[in-house]
Amino acid sequence: MKPFVLIAEDEKAVAELLRYNLEREGYETAVAPDGDEAMIQLDERVPDLVLLDWMLPKVPGIEVCRRIRSKPETANLPVIMLTARTEEADRIRGLDTGADDYVTKPFSTTELMARVRAVLRRIRPALIEDKVVVGDIVVDRTTHTVTRNGEGIHLGPTEFRLLDYFIQHPGRVFSREQLLDGVWGSDVYVEARTVDVHVGRLRKALMSNGGDDPIRTVRSAGYSLRAN
Amino acid sequence: MKPFVLIAEDEKAVAELLRYNLEREGYETAVAPDGDEAMIQLDERVPDLVLLDWMLPKVPGIEVCRRIRSKPETANLPVIMLTARTEEADRIRGLDTGADDYVTKPFSTTELMARVRAVLRRIRPALIEDKVVVGDIVVDRTTHTVTRNGEGIHLGPTEFRLLDYFIQHPGRVFSREQLLDGVWGSDVYVEARTVDVHVGRLRKALMSNGGDDPIRTVRSAGYSLRAN
DNA sequence: CCGGTGCTTGACACATATGTGACATATACT
DNA sequence: AGTATATGTCACATATGTGTCAAGCACCGG
């Protein structure tokens, strides 16, 4: 069962970005464009996590958060606040209200995804897979370790995140742009060709013990992890 | 290649609502505020689906629907009628005219989205699904793979797009010009004969495992994928 | 059965995408 | 500071895909 995330955010572009990234990391999502809608959806189905915009139309995010905490069935529901305000005072008020984490806009997608994972791991450890296995490759997020056929493999940070990204959806082809977005973050600018180099490094590392190439090149489309 | 939906609706608020929700779900949209405008836009570019208001200024929806059905190139175009009238008689008249579905205002957005998906899945499954099956051929867009009778088939980028295009409308015959437009893009100039070569390559690849030719040559008209 | 038109297909020159070693910086650790 | 490790780019070699042509085949109407 996929973790279900409610996105309470009125800016369409931001909501879409969140939805896209969450879904590709294997979450189920719903979007509420204002505070009222958020409350309605919360009544319909309790999510596993709420991403809550601070300034939400109709009912402000902080009020939504308060109401979430006041109802018994959602009292322990993890909430991550999104806000454009950077003032420390607000931050403290947000955490006081019971938000579990706090991210200021503009945020890096990869960072937010990491926070989402972190919060869920803390509150609902069972929902998050810490160890993913595809074929003979094992990725352990808690220890930051990769093994192939039992043998440990050393990967640099970027190669690790790259493999971690691929392993979310084995077999699926990702364009260089998607990989740059998901692995490097949508805010940094690097050449698309750089992806090739890192894929090459990842390949070399994964094949260092003699196995065959687990990454498939799809000409004019991108790369994918062999599903099997 | 997003599904393209034409919204023929004069009430701006409703049209906006539809547009917002459709675009959020990954559709491309255009709005026509009256019947004349709808007909003009239909001539310019044939959409994948039309949302058609019953009471449309200048040319009423039911008449637009009739005209859509009478033109060969739009005869099978999916149409969903929107209306405030709830009378059974109208409903029947609407379906008689050839609407594929019928939604009464006020409608729930999620319900309408579900109907849109349902109609498109029925009429043009290939637009919605990321895995399409025609006969013994399976095209998977997410993994960029093609299999026939379970055996993997390697296609170059152009051949893949060509097959993907054919599979949108199994059985339908496409002229070389249509294929150039749809597969290569309307901006590049290549010889019509080139289509022949690529069709040949696609055939060879698809028949490499011994199956029979899934593509039909229609002399002096073009090519089509055998519907079954 | 013949001629003509349209289609198929192998060859090939050219275009484009990808793989990879080298290198100059950046960053982290001691 | 000094060392080790990572990173992003480039340049060039290689692999793969593309468009065109032309010779030969298939089909159709007479």
Automatic annotation (TrEMBL), chains A, B:
<dbReference type="InterPro" id="IPR016032">
    <property type="entry name" value="Sig_transdc_resp-reg_C-effctor"/>
</dbReference>
<dbReference type="Pfam" id="PF00486">
    <property type="entry name" value="Trans_reg_C"/>
</dbReference>
<keyword id="KW-0238">DNA-binding</keyword>
<feature type="modified residue" description="4-aspartylphosphate">
    <location>
        <position position="53"/>
    </location>
</feature>
<keyword id="KW-0804">Transcription</keyword>
<dbReference type="InterPro" id="IPR001867">
    <property type="entry name" value="OmpR/PhoB-type_DNA-bd"/>
</dbReference>
<dbReference type="Pfam" id="PF00072">
    <property type="entry name" value="Response_reg"/>
</dbReference>
<dbReference type="GO" id="GO:0032993">
    <property type="term" value="C:protein-DNA complex"/>
</dbReference>
<feature type="domain" description="OmpR/PhoB-type">
    <location>
        <begin position="129"/>
        <end position="227"/>
    </location>
</feature>
<feature type="DNA-binding region" description="OmpR/PhoB-type">
    <location>
        <begin position="129"/>
        <end position="227"/>
    </location>
</feature>
<keyword id="KW-0805">Transcription regulation</keyword>
<comment type="function">
    <text>This protein is a positive regulator for the phosphate regulon. Transcription of this operon is positively regulated by PhoB and PhoR when phosphate is limited.</text>
</comment>
<protein>
    <recommendedName>
        <fullName>Phosphate regulon transcriptional regulatory protein PhoB</fullName>
    </recommendedName>
</protein>
<dbReference type="InterPro" id="IPR011006">
    <property type="entry name" value="CheY-like_superfamily"/>
</dbReference>
<dbReference type="InterPro" id="IPR039420">
    <property type="entry name" value="WalR-like"/>
</dbReference>
<dbReference type="GO" id="GO:0000156">
    <property type="term" value="F:phosphorelay response regulator activity"/>
</dbReference>
<keyword id="KW-0010">Activator</keyword>
<keyword id="KW-0597">Phosphoprotein</keyword>
<dbReference type="InterPro" id="IPR011879">
    <property type="entry name" value="Sig_transdc_resp-reg_PhoB"/>
</dbReference>
<keyword id="KW-0813">Transport</keyword>
<keyword id="KW-0963">Cytoplasm</keyword>
<dbReference type="GO" id="GO:0006817">
    <property type="term" value="P:phosphate ion transport"/>
</dbReference>
<dbReference type="GO" id="GO:0000976">
    <property type="term" value="F:transcription cis-regulatory region binding"/>
</dbReference>
<dbReference type="GO" id="GO:0005829">
    <property type="term" value="C:cytosol"/>
</dbReference>
<dbReference type="InterPro" id="IPR001789">
    <property type="entry name" value="Sig_transdc_resp-reg_receiver"/>
</dbReference>
<dbReference type="InterPro" id="IPR036388">
    <property type="entry name" value="WH-like_DNA-bd_sf"/>
</dbReference>
<keyword id="KW-0902">Two-component regulatory system</keyword>
<keyword id="KW-0592">Phosphate transport</keyword>
<dbReference type="GO" id="GO:0006355">
    <property type="term" value="P:regulation of DNA-templated transcription"/>
</dbReference>
<feature type="domain" description="Response regulatory">
    <location>
        <begin position="4"/>
        <end position="120"/>
    </location>
</feature>
